[in-house]
Amino acid sequence: MKTPWRTFFRQNRGRMIAAVALVLFVAYAYNRNAQITEAVLASSLRQSIPLILGALCGLIGERSGIINIGIEGQMLMAAFVSFLVNVKTGSLILATIAGVLMGALMGWALAFMSVTLRIDQIIGGTVLNMIAFGLTGYFYQVGLATKGKFQPIAIPLLSKIPIIGPVFFQNPPLTYLTLVLIFVVHFFLYYTRWGLRTRAVGEHPRAADTLGIDVYRMRYMNVTLAGMLAGLAGAYLTLEAVGSFERMMTNGRGFVALAVMIFGKWDPLSAWGAALLFGFATALQTQLQFMGALQIPHQFIGMLPYLLTIIVLAGVGGRTRPPAAVGQPYVKE
Amino acid sequence: MSEYVLEARGITKRFPGGVVANDHVDFNLRPGEIHALLGENGAGKTTLMNIIYGLYQPDEGQIFVDGRPVVIRSPHDAIRLGIGMVHQHFMLVPVFTVTENIILGAEVVRFGIVLDLPRARQQVLELSRRYGLEVDPDALVEDLPVGVQQRVEILKALYRDARILILDEPTAVLTPQEVEELFAVMRQLRDRGVSIIFITHKLKEVLAIADRITVMRRGKVVGTTTPDQVDEQKLAAMMVGREVVLEVQKTPAKPGPVVLDIRDLRVEENGVPVVKDVSLQVRAGEILGIAGVQGNGQTELAEALTGLRRPQKGTLVLDGKSMPFNNARILIENGLGHIPEDRQKHGLVLPFSIADNLVLCTYYKPPFARGWQRQPQAILENAERLIEQFDIRAAGPMVPVATLSGGNQQKVIVAREFSRPIRFLLANQPTRGLDVGSIEYIHRRIVEMRDQGVAVLLISAELDEIMSLSDRIAVMYEGEIVAVFDADKVDKATLGMYMAGARRQGDDELVAAGVRTQTRA
Amino acid sequence: MRSVLLSLTAIALALFIGALILLASGVSPLVAYGALLKGAFGDAQALQRTLEKATPLVFSGLAVAFAFKASLFNIGAQGQLLLGAIIAAAVGFGVEGLPPYIHAPLALLAGATAGALFAAIPGVLKVYTGAHEVITTIMLNYIAINLTDYLADGPWKDRSPMNIVARTPAILESARLPTWGPIPSGFVISVILAGVIYWLLWKTTFGFEIRTVGQNRHAARYAGISVAKVMIATMVISGLLAGLGGAVETQGVVGRYQPGFNVGLGFEGITIALLAKTHPFGVVPAALLVGAMKAGSSQMQFAADVAKEIIDVIQALMLFFISAEFLLRRMLRMKEEAGEEKLVLSTGWGSGD
Fold this sequence. Notes:
Oligomer: heterotrimer
Strand order of the largest sheet of chain A: 1-2
Shape of chain A: globular
CATH class of chain A: Mainly Alpha
CATH architecture of chain A: Orthogonal Bundle
Order of helices and strands of chain C: HHHHHHEEHHHHHHHH
Largest interface: A-C, 51 and 53 residues
């Protein structure tokens, strides 16, 4: 019997090699300058958090057959609600919960549009984005400030390990939560009844239907749950990464997350690798610029993540296989 | 114990648009019998079964299981009542393993949520041994031949303890040998007490396996009978409502010069060869039929020949002229006519009018266009003429083809292709899903084209169609032409052996027949 | 007729929900909408403002609607428009000594070409690599924002001593588009182009090819149409229209390139295209509607103290309702006709199919 792990290694040989190369590179850099290496890696992880959360959100949706290009809007609305709740109550926990619930509500709205109203899913996602841009713009008032933000918690012992410690074990709580969630989603997707049914609904909804699985219910449930992850990403942005809210602060991360999802072949762990790669690219260019090593206008540096997204899409496009039923509304006979 | 395990009384189902798919249909099933439900495409068989399986709700009527009235709101209810269904288009998730497909919806779990695949696998193995339905529980379904996929479908139903098994057109995709195997399985299941509803439109099969036969026509039950009371002619008449000519009327072919000449055609899909160095010659005035089980490279061969796919190697000569691949426009201009396998996907633009669909391949040429400008008057006149000439039943030339019946949609394609001056016709599954009247019509038209000197390559999964239309028959198996026969010198059983890969002609023979250029090293 | 009714219902519903939001934030919708109307049509000046606001919207609406006809979603109209705007500005201030009847069209042409080339990128990527245009065009929007910001803050920056922001110098008088009474000439151009696009789509063989590709790509290939060429050409024309929109904005209204003036025009194009049911003739009234909302929003902010962003919310709601045909048809008890042309964008990512 083929174990999932063996299959995983076989299918990801190229990435494994890339990972080894990366480890060697990091070791080399660490030898040269430990502090900067740690800083860049820690920054990579921070940059990757909203991307992987967004990618997981997109992935759960697409695995159940729903394209979600509204992740950007879901993040933005959640970031805004987290911000407001924090301003009003001063509680970071309540603010996070509010952001997650907002994400769920936005996810439900997408499910409602694509399952019940059968709006083209790409247009549905666009509606979500525009509503988020509009509402956050309308209700945002300049001058409000958050009351505090999540602070790093060093995990005893683990945080003392060189490189790994400062990068992975001296983080604020939402980062830890995200790292756990990646594995939770992976486990649920491949090893549980829910995961099997989710994948069936995304690949062949009619087959699932003929076996008594409620396709509509699965899609509603999954897109709503996935929305919570985008919501968490939004909360992360205001409560942990930035500590405040600005109009359009998501800055395209929701869309980049989709590219991360595609690059990660709709697989949570691979998507995490892709997210880290994007995070690393961003962190590296920031660092280079900071050190004055690059005499390039900042706008060109700013383009990098977007260029990288296009290159990645063009590179993997046509060679990946999305869930077969993605994008098609399921109509019961 | 009731006399019937399943009984449907007075079932009526109307669809939006006023179609009455089932009109007061009565149907019953005895314990441990194979009951054939016979009817043409569109007679309402599948609708009835979908109602019994809970996919549709009847507008009127009542269903009884073991004599008790039941309401079946969903497949879930049907499964609980012991009803299992094997759909015509398999309901399998291609990227799942056999085990995963079988347990889907009835999973074996630990702690309430975690899949217990090892135990599920064990159960699947036991089940497959018990019923003699051999499968590899770890194989991915997409890697399995259709015959095995069908076994997985049956196992799926048995895994859910089905006592009533509905098989919807199960033989459509099988070789004659596989059909025999399926019948053996069906008999075995029957002997173990499973009651089977066997849906088909093939008369011979019904007579071979059924204990009782119910015939449907246009949404109504025509009657119920047994195989010893009827013969093929009688059944055909019941099914169609008139005497049917079972044989296609045609004179012997008068083959002319070679029109289509392909050599060493190789098509790969993701690096795997699916058409392996195929050579073929089709002469003017002959019909060459390609027999084979679906998925043996016919689709890819057809796509390569019609400019829809670039083969990895090979040459294509049409009427003595060398043709480029992957350029449908040049092929069409040089006399290619194509009835595509999937008429709605490839052959028609459904929201467009009949008139626009009739000029789909010639819209840019005079008289339909002058320079850039389209000429609506000419397009309309063309449509009016062809609608008349090809007897297309429609409210007018400007209605969308989406509103037409399947038979009339196919006539639109035939009208478009046959009204151009074509030299070579590729007819891929030209009558799939059509009623007998349309089938007869399209067969007659194809023979007419042959008699006018067109070279015809016919690809069909229906062996009967291949046998009755072709002048020569080539058998395709796993991407290769494994045999070529004159149509009058071969029988169905022999073809079946070749289709199943049990036999192949010697390389010398194949080279002599022109379907290989060299013997294998 | 039916589609007009659907659009009107969508607009009414969006305005209604917008009114509820206004009520929730303590503003009388009547006062707010009244001010909006006055600011948009109250006098000749207001009317001119509406037409000015509507002009680039007709272009971006046409751009999106045109791409929709080939089932392509050009969310990148925004970026193409930005490039068109800045290139037109560069030609407008950089090329000297030309008479107006050459300079103005030259700048327009330059802007249009810039948009067209920029839109060719996602077209080529889609055809040859399978990268879905929805993501690539969005990414290109961000790239365009950075690129134009670099140009306006670097090589093409307005170096006059008073200026501290990122903007180009003012274009020369000879590159400016005239205004006839309250009617900007750019608006006239946009209406003419709507007619040209209609002709192209329904009266020419090329239009037939585009619509065939849009409704059934497989059948188009079967019929010998080069889907790749048609898709790229469609994106190029769509980008050309968007680029022209940017150029008209620069030459007819702003008078230079200045970031912030044209934010959201490309996205508004989506709403307009869908309100117009992707028909070129529907684009003009839909653009006028959105233009009027934008023109009147300042007056509304002033008179009723309502943040301008409410019109973004209302637009998003319009987009929602017009997309939710299923819902609208239920409400209006309208049946779907068999075989209607449908807009389908959500085919799989990157699978090239």
